[in-house]
Design goal:
Layout (H helix, E strand, L loop, with lengths): L10 H29 L11 H7 L6 H17 L4 H7 L11 H9 L6 H12 L4 H7 L22
């Protein structure tokens, strides 16, 4: 009978592995970068918003900044959502009736959906139970998309000026 003594992957283990992989990746990238400069091939140029930039140029091997940004933006939006077209759109959608677990649990699952599926399972159950259609999911997917809700007035008032 085998006993599983696994402690799981703790934040300290992730940090340790990140340092090791980061050191190896940085050394390899520095070699490639030096040789690319010498050969003038410009293969060292990396797009600013890419994962490669994060790793090789910024030398960031974790997602601490991204997790902090998620929470800062969430806090800002919760406290400062203006009464604009986006707010009206949000107010027009009836929320699902989640079980009201402690609120921070919902935030935790939302930010760590790849690890915690409890709230995801609850959402899927509510979709099935209430026979919700794909149109609802499509409607909700507009949130956080590139749709511009900053509509300023009636477009008809500009027709005479064009």
């Amino acid at each position: 009978m085998a006993t599983d003594f696994s402690t799981g992957v703790t934040p300290n283990i992730k940090k340790f592995i990140g340092k090791i992989i980061g050191k190896i990746a940085t050394e390899l990238y520095d070699l490639i970068d030096d040789e690319a400069h010498r050969l003038q091939t410009y293969t060292y140029e990396i797009a600013y918003h890419s994962k490669a930039f994060k790793i090789f140029v910024a030398k960031e091997f974790d997602f601490i900044k991204e997790k902090l940004m998620q929470r800062e933006v969430m806090l800002f939006l919760l406290k400062n959502l203006p009464n604009d077209q986006l707010k009206q759109f949000i107010d027009s959608i009836e929320p699902l009736t989640f079980e009201q677990l402690h609120t921070n649990k919902y935030f935790n699952d939302m930010f760590n959906f790849h690890k915690h599926r409890g709230v995801m399972d609850e959402m899927e159950f509510l979709y099935e139970e209430n026979k919700l259609k794909y149109s609802r999911a499509e409607q909700l997917m507009v949130l956080g998309s590139d749709t511009n809700f900053d509509y300023f007035g009636d477009l008809n008032e500009f027709e005479g000026e064009l």
